[in-house]
Amino acid sequence: MADPKGFLNHDREVAKTRPVEERVKDWNEVYQPGSLLPIISKQASRCMDCGIPFCHNGCPLGNLIPEWNDYAYREDWSAASERLHATNNFPEFTGRLCPAPCESACVLGINQPAVTIKNVEVSIIDQAWDNGDVTPQPPERLSGKTVAVIGSGPAGLAAAQQLTRAGHTVAVYERADRIGGLLRYGIPEFKMEKRHINRRIEQMRAEGTKFRTEVEIGRDIDAAKLRKRYDAVVIAAGATTSRDLPVPGRDLKGIHFAMEYLPLANKVQEGDLTVAPITAEGKHVVVIGGGDTGADCVGTAHRQGAASVTQLEIMPKPGEERNPGQPWPTFPMLYKVTSAHEEGGERVYSVSTTHFEGDEDGNVKALHLIEVEFKDGKLEQKPGTERVIPAELVTLAMGFTGTDQENGLVSQFGLELDARGNVARDADFATNVPGVYVAGDAGRGQSLIVWAIAEGRSAARGVDRFLTGASALPAPIKPTDRALTV
After folding, report:
1. CB distance 164 to 139 below 8 Å
2. Is 467 helix (H, G, I), strand (E, B) or coil?
3. How confident is the model at residue 454 (pLDDT cuts 50, 70, 90)?
4. Superfamily of domain covering 244-398
5. 62 in Cβ contact with 84 (< 8 Å)
6. What pLDDT, on a 0 to 100 scale, did the predictor assign at position 484?
7. CATH 3.50.50.60 fits 146-240+401-468, yes or no
8. What DSSP character marks residue 243?
9. What one-character-per-residue DSSP string does 363-428 give?
10. Could you tell me the pTM of the whole model?
11. Residue 130 pLDDT > 60, yes or no?
């Protein structure tokens, strides 16, 4: 193990962020470069190497956290990287974007601040890249089998890399103009700079994975024809249908889904646009939805120079500590202050939008809301609490309801859906269509990046077994597995 007294000798210390007044003027990642390395050995030493490491259960990938904590403590970065990659294809993604259910399940977290697992993880992988420890791993021989992967988000990329390394010839189809899915266009640059995606793509190209951008299966290529062209297909198209808000005034100009707003800001950073067609500059911005996507909208609005930013959430404000109903090691609902919230704006809880108000030109100018409360398990409005707030740009960040069914992918394949509208699959992640598999949000529903990678790895095993009769690829989860929550 690491230092047997590490958790007694050292307090929890996390990565330092750049000053707010500095970082809102650019789109670089919010953390101070180089701030982790001087502290990470001590932080890794706080890992107790428990007899039963519950962090393994908190993480759907089954990351070998005590092992790479020990190597990080000893500053053996090569060994730490090997252990990290044993279970996770893209730790630089999860180390920056995952909400760390592993930390919620950390045994130390029972009565002390948990180990900074995310910070250790991202330190290991950044050192691995700097030291040249991340190299292409092409297969020793080819199987002669071909696989199409639809979607290049974390699930699709994980499945593609696993199957390529198993010797199959894999082509990834992406409807956008660049590879990465929501990692590319849904995650703002200040949360993860896209250079991290680019170098992984280059690694995968060197391993043999092929990429086809600006090709939408269902519209540009008939799904049934694609199935005939390849020996197997993995659908990793995500759950991209945004949840709408059907209230009066929804059709006013200036009201957009988060996934209409965020990609344009990213395209500016890619150099495709000089100015985003939808911008918060000088406007009163309202973000509806209190989750991570809403926070991304908040941070983006700050950088675009919004006059004000207000984030609305229909649920009550969570507490800052675990409540008895969410005991360790479950993933608790806690009040979270992201880097975007540190930068300003107002957060309003327990409110519901009743309608939007527009000006004479059809632009939204105000939002009418009312306070709500739970009574007997039902959400009820509180009379007399109505109020109006200015709103010249509104982003809807209320989650997603399922995979896209308008482009023809589902109907052309003839896929069956489950009760939630996700693509149905069996224990091997296989759909009702022979040779067609599904991974990620398209089959699970809206979830976390760490679950997407776990799904991609698990679906790859099912495909490999279908193609060859057996598989040595790991499958960290089953389709029915769910997060450790109450």
Report:
1. yes
2. helix
3. very high
4. FAD/NAD(P)-binding domain (3.50.50.60)
5. no
6. 72
7. yes
8. P
9. BEEEEEEEEEEEETTEEEE-TT--EEEE-SEEEE-S-EEES--SSSHHHHHT--B-TTSSBP--TT
10. 0.96
11. yes
Helix (H) or strand (E) holding 76: none
> Which regions of the chain carry the CATH code 3.50.50.60?
146-240+401-468, 244-398
Tokens for 452?
């997407």
Give the model confidence (pLDDT) of 47-95 as tens digits: 987 889 999 989 999 999 999 999 999 999 999 999 999 999 999 999 9
Decide if pLDDT at 486 tops 60: no
Tell me the one-letter amino acid at 385.
T
CATH number assigned to the domain with residue range 5-131, chosen from the 4 options 1.10.357.10, 1.10.1060.10, 3.30.420.110, 3.40.1010.10: 1.10.1060.10
| CB-count exposure of residue 70 (10 Å: 0-12, 13-18, 19+) | buried
Percent of residues, the chain, with pLDDT higher than 70? 99
Sign of the dihedral defined by the CA atoms of residues 472, 478, 483, 484, in that order: negative
366 confidence band (pLDDT: 50, 70, 90): very high
HSE, side-chain direction, 13 A CA sphere, residue 105:
23
pLDDT at 2 over 70: no
Check whether 348 has a pLDDT greater than 70. Answer: yes
What is the C-alpha separation between 281 and 285, in angstroms, rounded?
9
Q: Which amino acid is at 83?
A: R
Q: Please count the other Cβ atoms lying within 10 Å of the Cβ belonging to residue 4.
A: 11
Q: What is the mean pLDDT of residues 470-480?
A: 97
Q: Cα separation of 249 and 259, whole Å?
A: 20
Provide the 3-class DSSP secondary structure of residue 92. Answer: helix
Q: At what angle do helices 292-303 and 258-270 cross, to 10 degrees?
A: 50
- Digit-coded pLDDT (tens) for 133-153: 999 999 999 999 999 999 999
Region 414-442: what's the mean pLDDT? 96
Residues 6+ apart with CB under 8 A from 343: 20, 23, 24, 298, 299, 302
- The predicted structure's pLDDT at residue 112: 94
Judge residue 427's burial from the number of C-beta atoms within 10 Å of its C-beta, 0-12 exposed, 13-18 middle, 19 or more buried.
exposed
Q: Is 429 exposed, middle or buried (CB count within 10 Å of its CB: 0-12, 13-18, 19+)?
A: buried
Q: What is the DSSP letter of 213?
A: E
